[in-house]
Amino acid sequence: MAEKRNIFLVGPMGAGKSTIGRHLAQMLHLDFHDSDHEIEQRTGADIAWVFDVEGEEGFRRREAQVIADLSEKQGIVLATGGGSVQSKDIRNHLSARGIVVYLETTIDKQVARTQRDKRRPLLQVDDPREVLENLADVRNPLYEEIADVIVKTDEQSAKIVANQIIEQLGF
Ligand SMILES: Nc1ncnc2c1ncn2[C@@H]1O[C@H](COP(=O)(O)OP(=O)(O)O)[C@@H](O)[C@H]1O
Ligand SMILES: O=C(O)C1=C[C@@H](OP(=O)(O)O)[C@@H](O)[C@H](O)C1
Ligand SMILES: [Mg+2]
């Protein structure tokens, strides 16, 4: 890449942002960041703890700060959290400071990929599918609004999807 542009991955829980982002960064020799991981580093606690102690509101404040800070960097791949696009400030930061890639998948895949993982507080409910469907109604238009490219992640492995992103971006 001539200019060191950032690549921001957005999309719902279980789309593969964290996993595909790591592969993508490795392939492009860019630094990889994950907003959830950065929140955990800064607080010294896990995401579930932040939700428990500070509520979703506290988590969202931290998420906005972390994304504002990380998006100032150059030449990074950033995996955002699935809810980050609900903030207009965050959408503006992402659009202004890099290429936004929307990783799209099916609700079935989201359920399958997240069901054994206790680290997503919003999904620790009796019917996570219903939560994912309701979130999709609100968030999918926002992912679409800021996406420069949209890549499906339900049919191929994370590495292949990372390669497809590179092709689509023309790198
Ligand atoms: N393309 C893919 N194919 C199969 N499994 C995947 C794919 N992308 C991610 N996964 C798996 O799905 C789970 C959730 O992925 P993750 O990267 O944490 O998603 P996100 O960060 O978007 O919530 C992980 O166990 C990961 O290994
Ligand atoms: O969709 C959401 O609101 C959330 C998504 C999670 O990240 P992933 O999208 O990486 O799972 C994490 O930020 C938190 O549990 C809230
Ligand atoms: Mg993630």
Automatic annotation (TrEMBL):
Enzyme class: transferase
One Pfam entry name: SKI
GO molecular function: kinase activity
SUPFAM superfamilies hit by this protein: P-loop containing nucleoside triphosphate hydrolases
Keyword Plastid: no
Free-text cofactor note: Binds 1 Mg(2+) ion per subunit.
Catalytic function, reaction form: shikimate + ATP = 3-phosphoshikimate + ADP + H(+)
Enzyme Commission number(s) of this protein: 2.7.1.71
Family: Belongs to the shikimate kinase family.
Annotated function: Catalyzes the specific phosphorylation of the 3-hydroxyl group of shikimic acid using ATP as a cosubstrate.
HAMAP family xref list: Shikimate_kinase (MF_00109)
PANTHER family: SHIKIMATE KINASE, SHIKIMATE KINASE 1, CHLOROPLASTIC
Name of the protein in question: Shikimate kinase
Source species: Shewanella japonica
Gene symbol of the encoding locus: aroK
